[in-house]
Design a protein that fits this description.
Length: 281
C-alpha cells in the first residue's frame, strides 16, 4: 500500500464511524506515524508504507473510531502560534481561548513588565503563549491537578520559559499572598447536569475537573471573582472565559464585587466568551 491508499483506507474507516473530519484525521494520524509533516505526506503519495507503520496507523485509527480526540492520540495541539504537549490529564486547548491571549497582548505593551496570575493553567497554553511575546512579564500559574501542572512544566520547559513561570499545584481557595497586575483564567464552567450532553469526545476523554462547575456552572467563576479582589492590584485586570448564557449573571457578580466591565468579546459563533474587567477599589 502507498500513502495515498493508506489515507483513503483511514478516511473510509473513520467516515463509516461517523467522524466528520475523516480525511483530515487520517492525514494527521498518518503524518504522526511517519514522523512527517502533513505537507510532506501529501507530496509523497506514491511512497510505499512499511508493514509496521501500517499496523501502527491501524491501531491509532481504532482509537479515533472510538471518538478519542486526535490531540490525545498524537499528544499535540496547536494553540495561538505554538504547539503544546497534550495528554488526557489536560483539557485540549480551544481556539476560542485564544481570545484571552489576544486581548492580554493588546493591553500589555511590548516591553512592559507585568505580574500575571493564571488560574487553572492546564497545559499552560495561555500563559506560555503570552510570555513568549511579552518577554519582560513574569507569571504564577496554578492548577488543582498535579498531573496538569506536570504537563504545564513540560511545556514551559519546551518553550524555554521555566524561569519566567512559577507553576504551582494548588487550589484557588488556598492562595492568599502577592498582588498581581493581571489575573487570567479559562475556568471550568459547565453545569453538572449538562456534562452528559457533551460530545462523546469531550465527556469520555477530557478531564472532568476541567469541565464541571457545579449546579449553576458558576462555582469556579465565583471563586475567581471573589479571590481576585484580594489578589489584584488596584486597577488590575481580571480577564476570563465564560460559558454559553453566562454573560448576564457573571457581569452582575463582577459589578457586585467592585469590578468595572471594560469589554465582552464574542467568539466566532457570536457567543459572549471572554470578559475583561478592572478592579476599581
Ligand atoms: C477549562 S480547563 C483550562 C485549561 C487551560 N487553561 C486551557 O485553557 O486549555 C480548567 C483548569 O482549571 C483547573 N481547576 C479546576 N478547579 C480548580 C481550582 N479550584 N483551583 C485551581 N485550578 C482548578 C482544572 O484542573 C483545569 O486544568
Amino acid at each position: 500500500m502507498n500513502y495515498f491508499e493508506t489515507l483513503k483506507f483511514g478516511s473510509h474507516k473513520l467516515k463509516s464511524n461517523n467522524i466528520n473530519t475523516h480525511m483530515l484525521d487520517s492525514e494527521l494520524l498518518l503524518s504522526y506515524v511517519l514522523k512527517l509533516s502533513r505537507e510532506q505526506v501529501l507530496v509523497n503519495l506514491d511512497r510505499n508504507m512499511y508493514k509496521g507503520k501500517f499496523n501502527l496507523f491501524k491501531k491509532l485509527l481504532s482509537r479515533r473510531e472510538r471518538k478519542e480526540p486526535i490531540a490525545y492520540i498524537i499528544n499535540k495541539k496547536e494553540f495561538w502560534k505554538n504547539n503544546f504537549y497534550i495528554n488526557r490529564n489536560v483539557l485540549i486547548p480551544r481556539p476560542e481561548t485564544e481570545i484571552i491571549v489576544e486581548e492580554v497582548l493588546n493591553i500589555i505593551k511590548t516591553n512592559s513588565s507585568k505580574n500575571i496570575l493564571e488560574i487553572g493553567t492546564g497545559s499552560g497554553c495561555i500563559i506560555i503563549s503570552i510570555l513568549k511575546e511579552r518577554v519582560n512579564c513574569f507569571a504564577t500559574a496554578i492548577d488543582i491537578s498535579k498531573k496538569a501542572i506536570n504537563i504545564a512544566k513540560f511545556n514551559a520547559k519546551m518553550h524555554h520559559l521555566s524561569n519566567k513561570i512559577n507553576l504551582k499545584n494548588i487550589d484557588i481557595d488556598k492562595i492568599h499572598y502577592n498582588k498581581y497586575d493581571f489575573i487570567i483564567s479559562n475556568p471550568p464552567y459547565i453545569k453538572k447536569f449538562n456534562i452528559s450532553r457533551l460530545d462523546e469526545s469531550v465527556k469520555f476523554f477530557e478531564p472532568y475537573i476541567a469541565l464541571e462547575a457545579g449546579i449553576d456552572g458558576l462555582r469556579e467563576i465565583k471563586k475567581i471573582i471573589i479571590k481576585s479582589n484580594e489578589l489584584l492590584k488596584k486597577n488590575g485586570k481580571l480577564i476570563f472565559e465564560i460559558g454559553d448564557n453566562q454573560v448576564m449573571v457573571v457581569k452582575k457578580i463582577l459589578n457586585q464585587n467592585g469590578y468595572y466591565i471594560e469589554k465582552v468579546i464574542n467568539d466566532i459563533s457570536s457567543i459572549p466568551r471572554v470578559i475583561i474587567s478592572t478592579k476599581i477599589n
